[in-house]
Design goal:
Distance between the termini: 19 Å
Largest sheet: 2 strands, antiparallel
Structural class: mainly alpha
Number of helices: 4
Order of helices and strands: HEEHHH
Strand content: 5-15%
Length: about 100
């Protein structure tokens, strides 16, 4: 079953991988995520929570559609897109927790 779930989200997860161009390194040698990297990492966590719901065969409403997903990953990325990605992550986490406790 895990394989089917991984296949379901595989293309999404691949698009959400944080690439080297999504990071920058300061003079102190520490790498930081650019805004697009932060959006990708938040959406990746959201997809993880949706995968958890799939593992438990729970019904859920995906809080984003293809159009919103494409918009979030398009340049330029500002605070509005970052806030939306964080909202989606929290919404997915809330669904995963709520459904886990209702069992």
């Amino acid at each position: 079953m895990a394989t089917a779930i991984e296949n379901k989200w595989a293309s999404t997860i691949k698009r959400l991988q944080v690439l080297k161009k999504d990071c920058y390194t300061k003079s102190d040698g520490i790498s930081y995520l650019k805004a697009i990297g932060l959006v990708k990492s938040n959406l990746r966590v959201a997809v993880y929570y949706l995968g958890c719901l799939d593992d438990r065969s729970e019904d859920y409403q995906v809080p984003f559609d293809r159009e919103k997903f494409e918009w979030l990953l398009s340049e330029p990325v500002g605070q509005k897109k970052l806030d939306e990605a964080i909202r989606i992550k929290h919404e997915c986490a809330k669904m995963a927790r709520r459904n886990a406790y209702e069992v």
